[in-house]
Amino acid sequence: MPRPAKPSVCHVLAYRTRGHTVIELRGEIDIAAVLHVTPLLDDITVGPALTVVIDLSPVVFMDCSGLGLLCRARRRVEGRGGSLVLVCPHLMIRRILRIAKLTELFDLSHTLEEALISAPQAS
């Protein structure tokens, strides 16, 4: 008997630290997760001049819909005068960003600490 497909698992944790909003994504960032995460990300990125750090450290998989989610968050934050930094220690996700020619659009950090130090303070 075939087993049902394993559902995508994604958790979002958002918190403020050192004047920055940190959004930690966990699990698999695929089309199913994006449908769940997009409204949450939209709620978090609604304010003006936010400094947002998206932490991808706990992400185990990301597809092109995840890239779209990151681009959406970037547009929303920067469109309101804020800035966005990605924490991305995973070589595979960095490679996907490079292939999609997105590395020039995102400020990338290897660790959360590095991102918190380099991200501009919200006004």
> How many helix segments?
4
Distance between the termini: 58 Å
Number of strands: 6
Assembly state (oligomeric)? single chain
- Report the C-alpha radius of gyration, rounded: 14 Å
CATH architecture field: 2-Layer Sandwich
Instruction: Provide the residue-averaged pLDDT.
Output: 90
The percentage of residues in β strands lies in: 25-35%
Task: Write up this protein.
By secondary structure, the protein is α/β, with parallel strands linked by helices. It has one domain (10-113): STAS domain (Transcription Regulator spoIIAA). It is 37% helix and 28% strand. The protein is built from four helices and six strands, in the order E-E-H-E-E-H-E-H-E-H. It has helices at residues 31-44, 64-79, 91-99, 112-118, and strands at residues 10-17, 20-29, 51-55, 59-62, 83-87, 107-109. Strands 1, 2, 3, 4, 5 and 6 form a six-stranded mixed β-sheet that branches. A hairpin with a 2-residue loop joins strand 1 (10-17) and strand 2. It is globular, with a radius of gyration of 14 Å. It starts with 9 loop residues before the first strand and ends in a 5-residue tail after the last helix. The model is unreliable at 3-8 (pLDDT under 50).
Briefly summarize what is shown.
This protein has 123 residues and is an alpha/beta fold.
